[in-house]
Amino acid sequence: MSVVEFERRQDTGVWTEKELTTLLGALHAATAPVTGRTWETGVTDNGDAQFYLLGPLPEQVCELCVSRIGGRYVLEDGAGRLLFEHRNLDLVVLHAKAALSPASRVMVRAIMAWFAIRSTFQEKFEPLLVEGEELLVQVAPQLAALA
Q: What is the largest CA-CA distance in the chain?
């Protein structure tokens, strides 16, 4: 694994007003009072600014996190998996909106269901089909002789 050293600025732990406006403007539908979601800011262990989109009470699990490390913005899901990174915050918030859309969640669930069904079919039924073909190859000549 290679480690990339990011450049550091003095004000790394503070979001600018423009950055917060961009984040909140793009995620305003996700942070609407109806959804029960809230947002919070914080800093990493190294003092880099972070923006958290939190789920509804009482758990308030982190659903998305945007970090500014040096001049790059890093988008992660609630489990800490990297979703996207770029120097342009507008591109990052577009990916954040896409990650929160219900259509993408349904699509991911449908894809996962398809792979589960396909895997089950390959593991359980394909061996039976192959054995059936082998049996047919052995029995076909004898059936042809009777006809």
A: 91
Contact 9, 70 (CB under 8 A): yes
Tokens of 17: 């007003």
Provide the angle, in degrees to the nearest 10, between the axes of the packed helices 89-100 and 17-26.
30
Residue 15: name the closest of 36, 32, 40 by CA.
40
Assign residue 75 a region (left: φ > 0; alpha: ψ between -120 and 50; beta: otherwise): beta
Helix (H, G, I), strand (E, B) or coil at 117: helix
* Beta-carbon contacts of residue 9 (< 8 Å; ≥ 6 apart): 70
82, 4 Cβ separation under 8 angstroms: no
| Alpha-carbon separation of residue 79 from 55, 75, 88, 98, 112 (angstroms) | 13, 11, 23, 17, 18
> Coil, helix or strand for 62?
strand
**DSSP structural state of residue 47:** S
Q: What is the tens place of the pLDDT at every residue in 86-144? A: 999 999 998 888 888 766 667 767 888 888 888 887 787 776 666 767 777 777 777 77
